[in-house]
Amino acid sequence: MTSSTADPHTFEYLLPSLGADMDYGSIIEWRVSVGDTVSRGDIIAVVDTEKSDIDIEIWHDGVIEEFLVPTGEEIDVGTPLARLRRLEGDTSPTPPIPASAATTPASERPRASPLARRLAAERGVDLSTVTGSGPSGAIVEADIHTSTPIPDATPPTHQPQDATAKMRALIAERMTRSNSEIPHYYLSRVVDLTALENWLTAQNAERSITERLLPAALYIRAVGLAAARHRELNGYWNDGRFEPGPAVNVAMAISLRKGGLVTPHVADADKQSPDEIMSTLTELVNAARSGGLRSSWMTGATITITNLGETGADLVHGVISPPQVALVGFGRPALRPWVVNDELVARTIATVTLAADHRATDGAVGSRFLATLASLLEDPEKL
Amino acid sequence: MSATDAGNMPAMTYREAMREALREALAADDRVFIMGEDVADYGGPYAVTKGLHEEFGRDRVRNTPLSEAGFVGAGIGAALGGLRPIVEIMTVNFSLLALDQLVNTAATLHHMSGGQFNVPLVVRITTGAGRQLAAQHSHSLEGWFAHVPGLKVIAPATPEDARWMLPTALADPNPVIIFEHSVLYNESGPVGPATGPIDITKAAIRRAGTELTIVASAGMVPKALAAAEQVAKAGVSAEVIDLRSLRPLDVSTLTQSVQRTNRALVLDEGWRTGGLNAEVAATLAESCFWSLDAPIVRLAGSEVPIPYAKHLEDAAIPQVDDIVAAAINLVRPEQ
Fold first, then answer.
1. Is domain A2-101 annotated with CATH 3.20.20.70?
2. Taking CB atoms and an 8 Å cutoff, what residues of chain A touch B289?
3. What is the rounded distance in angstroms from the CA atom of residue B185 to the CA atom of residue B64?
């Protein structure tokens, strides 16, 4: 996120929104120094959001001239963090703000009905955090009912002991919004994972422990391919209509040992090989559990997977992560009696579920998606 | 009134109900008489007074020359002299000839005489479009009269109100104008027995609802109810208020309703600009601002003289489909 300055040779780097629920954050540490030359994609700072510590990337090449905010100070999204000097010969316009980071400027008064304003004031709801469902995105009464008051309006400080509670409050806010705003429909399909399991065993037999593939990588790959074929489920519900995702970015819910979860994504999951996905997934899981998730992993997911794993429950009816329109759940694979070629045999069976936004799609679309997904999972050579 | 009660009541047309009210008034009080154009032998242009002159004689059901200024003025004089005249004006378009008598005399004498003179006059005026009578017989100018202090202006929209608002109007010591929408005369509905004097200054909730309030009067009331029935099938709960009294407006009933439903759709068969609907909408904006979840919407007559051709006449005034569309758009803007 960048902004032009009066001096055409410099530009400002603004605090990006690292998710729809982020309104403020603070710099924990700078990863660059004044005078450093940075390139697009370089990590320049670690930001404390309520969810986790995230490495933020620069979107435009330049030389750091000055830091504009001290570390540790609570700042709103959109606040200039640093001024950078353009590189010699750089006459390109300041790049547009990435869509995922675009937010309403703090000074702009949100459109809201008088009733919505009164209710928001009575309940301590900050209108700038509410998504309007009325005409032209105006906030109306119903939007206030489905929003949650800011759990802690006092300026938060970087206190690790509060982080879990804050993450809980954020998850509560997002999931409440999801379940009250999104008319979910749920479909499930029982999938025979024997072939996939055998294929993985054969693959992994030739690999060292660190190179081994986990089923999750294949799930991400399969969901990526299925989402690419059923684009209606890959994207966002915004302002009363569906916007297809620009790519297939499959997020994976990763639970944290201290409690809570994060959902970083694997970009272009439909185009990457299982090995590439596995290596990204390892990075994501390590980063999620140790801190240090990159901002580009945290924004832009177009569909999400929740995987209950080998010891989990058999079936999950997931809650969609707004503004996405679909969530795929993988239940516990287990040996079950199964009929194959008229014979009863033991097979590895799992129930795959789809929770989808009925505003964006109907059950027929979801059903076709699950059929595609099942055919991919049952024939791992296609992955 | 419960549905069972309504079911046990005799059904009557609006015309019959009004005629019954007039007959009762003539029978009950010798001071009461009716005058207007063709009200005697012809039975009135809309047959409301049919048969009354045979029953009560030509002194009490009197034909007048075609001079609204003259016979309304005579009515004011008779009222000042102690009688209780009921003056019929064939259509609101013609009432303009009597505006001077009504606005400068009937409405002002009580005030200008320091309370010494009252004008206990009742004027019945037909209003509204829908019968292909073209621009000189079809307008809705009730709002003009509702503008004037010193007048009470009422608009019965049901046979029940046609039957029972007249006695209260006649008992009023000051002028009351009754607007009768021409398409209502053939409407039929239950009419209950007398229950004592009724309040003619209160609005009535004709249908309870939770998501928007449709404010209607006169000929718009049946359309509003039909629209409310239709939008209910689309899952929209509309409350319908029949204003009944155009002056004074029952602000309290309107306000309480909109504070519950948070949305208002104000109907008016008359022209939008400067119309009564503007008064209602502005009043609601003042009294309900912090309860409004959407802008107040008005649906009014097109700004044209009412056309003769049926399809053009229909297009010139709000119809049920227009009300349905406006109501749904107000409550579910996404659909």
1. no
2. 114
3. 23
- Alpha carbon dihedral B85, B88, B94, B100, in 10-degree steps, equals 10
Q: Which residue has the tokens 């009597």?
A: B98
Catalytic residue, chosen from B37, B68, B180, B239, is B68
What one-character-per-residue DSSP string does A228-263 give?
HH-GGGSEEEETTEEEE-SS--EEE-EE-TTS-EE-
Tokens standing for A90?
């750089």
At B245, list the tokens. 């009294």
Kindly calculate the radius of gyration of chain B based on its CA atoms and give it in whole angstroms. 20
CATH superfamily of A184-382: Chloramphenicol acetyltransferase-like domain (3.30.559.10)
Tell me whether residue B24 is one of the annotated catalytic residues.
no
- How large is the C-alpha radius of gyration of chain A? 22
Q: Which CATH superfamily is domain B3-190 in?
A: Thiamin diphosphate (ThDP)-binding fold, Pyr/PP domains (3.40.50.970)
Q: Does the N-terminal peptide bond of residue B85 adopt cis geometry, omega within 30 degrees of 0? A: no
A331: helix, coil or strand?
coil
ipTM score assigned to the predicted complex: 0.73
DSSP A134-203: SGGG-B-HHHHHTS---S--SPP---HHHHHHHHHHHHHHHHHHHHHH--EEEEEEEEE-HHHHHHHHHH
Cβ-contact B13, B187 below 8 angstroms = yes
Residue B322 pLDDT exceeds 60: yes
A59 and A11 Cβ atoms separated by less than 8 Å: no
Q: Which residues of B fall within a CB distance of 8 Å from A240?
A: 334
pLDDT at residue A106 greater than cutoff 50: no
pLDDT in tens, B141-156: 999 999 999 999 999 9
CA distance, residue A360 to nearest chain B CA (Å): 13
- DSSP annotation of A207 reads S
Question: Is A119 touching B (CB cutoff 8 A)?
Answer: no
- Residue A115 in contact with partner chain B when CB distance is under 8 A: yes
Give the DSSP H or E segment for B320.
helix B320-331
Over residues B48-69, the mean pLDDT reads 96
CA distance B11 to A361: 51
Q: Using the beta-carbon criterion (under 8 Å), do A115 and B334 form an inter-chain contact?
A: no
